[in-house]
Design goal:
Elements: H1 2-27, E1 38-45, E2 48-55, E3 63-64, H2 70-101, H3 111-114, H4 117-120, H5 130-138, E4 154-155, E5 161-162, H6 165-176, E6 181-183, E7 187-189, E8 192-194, E9 198-202, E10 207-214, H7 220-235, E11 244-248, H8 257-267
Parallel strand pairs: 10-11
Antiparallel strand pairs: 1-2, 2-3, 4-5, 6-9, 7-8, 9-10
Helix pairs in contact: 1-2, 6-8
Length: 269
């Protein structure tokens, strides 16, 4: 959130600087060969364009411009185009400068930090810091899917039990990247409760994603169940590329750690 705000302000300041340079560049190519009272009219017949000169201070019909006079039309059209560009640049500049001029001294997210300690202890912050948000999100209590005593399981760096070596790879990669995650946290989809392999958090945007690892795609029964689960996600608005992250593997093509890292950088950083 903070980074987004700073980026927007920086973008606006840079945009102002660029627009002022463009305005200066535009003024240097002002066409002095055109009378301000002259305009052109353009008509089309078939694939051909015809140009007519209109003088506002004179009566009479528009004057047809022959091919040898086309430079007159070109100069007037360029003048009109440049004037539109100038008006739009000036309007945008004025809008950006007005916005920047009217910004408060502090963003509302920073007001709590600006308070003296005596006020902080009696005030409830309106905005949680990332650390506070992560702490509340990560410590949420939930009933996960039970791992039976006879189930094969593996331990992650965080000390939890997961069902496959590939899930260890995903969990540990998330852990070392500093990405908060839940393992097999229940999710209500309609009347059904499912257990995504991982529920993960993009701290910067505070958006949740569901991460499913499709680990046995060469197993027909497993594939059928996986496709039903993915269909259920889509029916409830959870789609890959939006809020669903998928990794895949078969016996011949095991999980790709680089691909896991790429997905973390793309969705969760």
């Amino acid at each position: 959130m903070k980074n987004d705000y700073d980026y927007i302000i920086s973008f606006m300041i840079n945009r102002c600087s660029m627009l002022e340079k463009e305005l200066s560049r535009l003024s240097k190519r002002k066409n002095t060969n055109v009378c301000k009272d002259e305009k052109i009219k353009v008509s089309q017949r078939g694939q051909k364009y015809y140009y007519y000169l209109i003088r506002n201070n004179k009566h009479g019909e528009p004057k047809y411009l022959k091919q040898s006079e086309i430079e007159i039309a070109r100069n007037i059209a360029q003048r009109d185009y440049d004037e539109i560009i100038k008006r739009n640049i000036e309007k945008e500049l004025d809008s950006i400068k007005t916005y920047l001029r009217n910004l408060p001294d502090l963003k509302y997210e920073d007001i709590y930090d600006s308070l003296i300690e005596g006020r902080k202890v009696i005030v409830m912050p309106f905005v949680m810091t990332d650390e506070e948000y992560i702490n509340i999100w990560q410590n949420e209590k939930y009933n996960t899917k039970k791992i039976r005593p006879d189930d094969i399981c593996y331990e992650t760096q965080r000390g939890e039990k997961v069902r496959s070596k590939s899930e260890v790879i995903i969990a540990d990669t998330l852990y070392f990247a500093g990405i908060p995650y839940h393992y097999e946290k229940p999710l209500q989809l309609g009347k059904r409760i499912i257990y995504p392999d991982f529920t993960v958090l993009n701290v910067r945007t505070r958006k949740e994603y569901y991460w499913e690892h499709l680990g046995m795609l060469d197993n027909e029964d497993y594939l059928d169940k996986a496709l039903r689960k993915l269909d259920n996600y889509e029916e409830h608005g959870i789609r890959e590329g939006n809020n669903l992250i998928l990794t895949r593997e078969t016996a011949k093509f095991p999980i790709n750690i680089s691909n896991v890292k790429d997905k973390i950088n793309y969705y969760l950083k």
